[in-house]
Amino acid sequence: MSSEIVIQVNNVSKRYEIYETSHHRIYQILSLGLMKFHKTFWSLQNISFEVARGECLGIIGRNGSGKSTLLQILAGTTIPTSGEVEVRGKVAAMLQLGSGFNPEFTGRENVLVNGVILGLSRKQVHEKMDDIISFAEIGDFIDQPVKTYSNGMFVRLAFATTTHINTDIILIDEILAVGDALFRQKCYKKFEEFRASGRTIILVSHEADVVKRYATRVIELTHGRLVSQDTSQVSAQPNKNQQ
Amino acid sequence: MKFSGRKSNPTLHYLNPLSTFKNLWKYRDLIVLLTQRSILLRYKGTLLGFFWMIATPILMLAVYLFVSVYIFKAQWSGAEFANPRAARALIMFCGITIFNISSETIHTSISSVAGNPNYVKKTIFPLEILPFVSTASIFFFGSIWALIILTCILIFVKQLCITVILCPLLFVIFFLLCSGISWFLASAGVYVRDTVHVTGILTQLLFFVTPICYNIKMVPERFRAFIYLNPLTVLISSTQNVLFWDRWPDWTLLGLIGLASLIIFQGGYYFFMKTKGWFADVL
């Protein structure tokens, strides 16, 4: 494994301000920080870790342990309250599959839009279109509006779109539970391919045993703190509050 | 890419109009695609589809013609034309088009980011293009209205002035103004949900301080400055001047509005970029 660091997280914390009612928010603005009208909630506290190129890092922890916040920070959709994050390379985030899809448009149109959102030109997406359609196994449905799709088809198409675009880093949040067993196998095979081609994967889930099977290294979060950085110490007990 | 705490946001970078245009150019494919999509989406599922794109302005203009010819007697403008009542209807319609574009920009931009929480929270997405795209698609429909006005001028007034060549410049100034405003409102709409109610009243007020159904000369002297504070006043009177009376606009006023529009454009972008990091936390 090469030791080139692609993600560096340095002492990152994230604080949310919780307001009881919305006018407390106005009081807070008007008081210019002299008074406090909110509770603070630390979603992440002093997180530091590094990810090398080609690694598949698993992040586990119970619901509400800050996994998704951490992933959002890595994706750049939210800013840490303190600390620094450095990400080298282009990132694709699967924080929720198909979140950019519009139900009124056909699969083909949605793939195009999503590909362009991920940074390709329209021409590049057209070139990859056939691969994406065949990986997603949805056949002629590609030209039907996405609202007519079954849940599985929707997810398969979204997964195919994101994975067929060559980004350096892929962030995946809790999506392994979807799709049937066969498609899951296919997804994992895809992950293997990525790692072989030097792409980095960050896998987030509350299912520790699933993550452990595919990740090269696992870190565990509890109440916003990093509790373990080693595969051998990961507690593999099933989560009681699974969705 | 590097993300960090509050301290190190590149302030000066966002104040430079060139970097704004460069950023928009970088996302041109996405802007074009999303604009197309939002244009298509407006008539998706309707029975008449794209027919509405032309039908709406024509029917609207028909209403104005009817009112102007049969009901509204006061000839405050356009008396010198061969077809004075139709001319007045077109002059009014020209104003109403510009007003409609701005009020629609105000209305749609508020929800352009707040209405797309998926783009904010679940994908890596250049959010600054969302308000821009909504403005661009409104201007697309606006230019169809403009083409219909031009056609009707040829039909009813039977002349097209050379000054028409200034329309693209007016269009650009108007576009800068509207996209600047849309960035402000899009960000405000995320943080303050009351924005939509405030702007609802403000656009109503805007309608009455914009010389659409009256002439600026009919306004008492002491209120006129107030009307001129509204950037639409100069834009509408310039447009009417170049379309109907073969007159060049007041260059000083137009220059001022142009400068103000550029400042609003850049200010709106700056405001949006400085605030967008916390969108995901409040949505």
Which descriptors apply to this entry?
heterodimer, A: alpha/beta, Rossmann fold, 6-stranded mixed beta sheet, 7 helices, disordered C terminus, B: 283 residues, mainly alpha, 13 helices, globular
Describe the structure.
The complex is a heterodimer of chains A (243) and B (283). By secondary structure, chain A is of the alpha/beta class. Helices cover 33% and strands 26% of the residues of chain A. Chain A has 7 helices and 9 strands. Chain A has helices spanning 22-30, 67-75, 107-117, 122-136, 151-163, 181-196, 208-214, and strands at 5-18, 39-52, 56-60, 82-87, 91-94, 169-173, 200-205, 217-222, 225-228. In chain A, the strands form 2 sheets. In chain A, strands 5-6-7-3-8-9 form a 6-stranded mixed β-sheet, sandwiched between helices. Chain A is globular, with a radius of gyration of 20 Å. Residues 232-243 of chain A have low confidence and may be disordered. Chain B is mainly α. Chain B has one domain (10-39, 47-277). Helices cover 73% and strands 1% of the residues of chain B. In chain B, helix 5 (84-114) packs antiparallel against helix 7 (129-157) and helix 5 (84-114) runs antiparallel to helix 9. Chain B is globular. Residues 5-9 of chain B have low confidence and may be disordered. Classes of the chains: A alpha/beta (243), B mainly alpha (283). Chains A and B meet through helix 2, strand 4, strand 5 and helix 3 of A and strand 1, helix 3 and helix 6 of B.
